[in-house]
Amino acid sequence: MERIKQALTRAREEQNKRGNFTLAEVKEHPASTTTDLEYDYTQTKVVELNSKVLHKNRVLFDKDNDRANTAYKLLRTQVEQRMLAKGWNTLAVTSPSPGQGKSLTSINLAISLARSKHNSVLLVDLDLRRPSIHRYFGYEPENGVADCLSNDLPVSEILFNPGLERLVVAPGKQSVYNSSEILASPRMGSFVNELKNRYKSRYIIFDLPPVLATDDAMAFSPYVDATLLVIEDEVTTNDQLKQTLQMLEGTNIVGTVLNKAKSNSGNYYYYYN
Ligand SMILES: Nc1ncnc2c1ncn2[C@@H]1O[C@H](COP(=O)(O)OP(=O)(O)O)[C@@H](O)[C@H]1O
Ligand SMILES: [Mg+2]
After folding, report:
1. Does any ligand 1 atom lie closer than 6 A to the CB of residue 129?
2. Number of domains in the chain
3. Are 104 and 263 in contact (CB under 8 A)?
4. From residue 181, how far is each of 102, 129, 168, 215, 229 by CA, in Å?
5. For residue 25, how many C-alpha atoms fall within 13 Å in the half-sphere facing its CB?
6. What is the 21 CA–ligand 1 centroid distance (Å)?
7. Is position 136 within any domain?
8. What is the domain-level CATH number for residue 15?
9. What separation in Å is there between the alpha carbon of 104 and the centre of ligand 1?
10. Ligand 1 within 6 A of 94 CB?
11. Atom of ligand 1 at shortest distance to CA of 100?
12. What is the pTM of this model?
């Protein structure tokens, strides 16, 4: 873990030099009003989810997992402060490779943000090759994001509220094989604009594909204000981290999650930034 920490520290110093982190100037976010929130809630179908499935999938709807809730609250606070300071509201979540925790981090961060009364969150599954957010929620949607992008289905047709106030989800469904093309297409730009303008959530979180497998994440990065990088303890190598940071050069990395950290205290995850 030490070597990764050192690499992260160096990366953070680089980011600081580029002026991305300014915790001091926290200010009110311009984007959200109660009216926007109410709009989302009256228009979006509410899906009743199975709490056992959520629990099994580590989706933190219940408040009794103190350790996990605390870890995500800490992550939420850090992300929120940095986004607020910059007036940002769109966040991509990615990682070097698959399976490192992008989707679970996106979901639990979205939940944690939405628990704050002054926040509303739209969570979008853009891992078009391996959409999984609906599975974490134990919900089989009729259509997904790819149908909006390829078949011009209106976004409002796919959105659902998973029973938690102030959280709306745009799920994926089946996997698509031309995802780089879709993510780089002009339709993508209008889709993101539609999300930003029609659903004025304070935060929009995009669960992206991994950086090193394809150029999908790179193709999408111009559409978001900032990126959260998830790396896996004892799995992500220094070289992979270096390569990932190079690929993401020019994007605002809002923080890094060292996920599935093995520590003596037995925590099964740990946030390091
Ligand atoms: N912090 C964590 N602690 C324990 N298991 C985790 C953690 N983060 C992710 N996982 C598990 O790792 C697997 C991959 O996570 P996922 O978020 O789907 O990865 P990705 O979206 O990056 O492919 C899932 O089984 C998930 O439940
Ligand atoms: Mg995923």
Report:
1. no
2. 1
3. no
4. 21, 12, 26, 10, 23
5. 7
6. 27
7. yes
8. 3.40.50.300
9. 6
10. no
11. 22
12. 0.87
- Tell me whether strands 121-125 and 203-207 are parallel, antiparallel or unpaired: parallel
Q: Is there an atom of ligand 1 within 6 Å of 106 CB?
A: no
What is the tens place of the pLDDT at every residue in 70-80? 889 999 999 99
The verdict on the CB of residue 98 being under 6 Å from ligand 1 is yes
Q: What is the pLDDT of residues 60-73, one digit of tens each?
A: 987 777 788 888 99
Which residue, by CA, sits nearest to atom 23 of ligand 1?
99
Does any domain span residue 267? no
CA-nearest residue for atom 17, ligand 1, is 101
Dist CA 100 CA 89 (whole Å) = 24
**Alpha-carbon distance 241 to 222, whole Å?**
20
3-state DSSP assignment of residue 116: coil
Q: 161 and 168 in contact (C-beta within 8 Å)?
A: yes
Atom of ligand 1 nearest to the CA of 95: 22
Strand pairing category for 90-94 and 203-207? parallel
70-108 core/surface letters (b: 16 or more CB in 10 A; e: else): ebbbebbebbbbbbbbbebbbbbbbbbbeebbbbbbbbb
The span from the CA of 249 to the CA of 171, in Å, is 28
Q: How confident is the model at residue 11 (pLDDT cuts 50, 70, 90)?
A: low
Within a domain: residue 157? yes
Q: Residue 72 sits in which domain range?
A: 2-20+31-259
| Residue at 255 is within a domain | yes
pLDDT of residue 97: 95
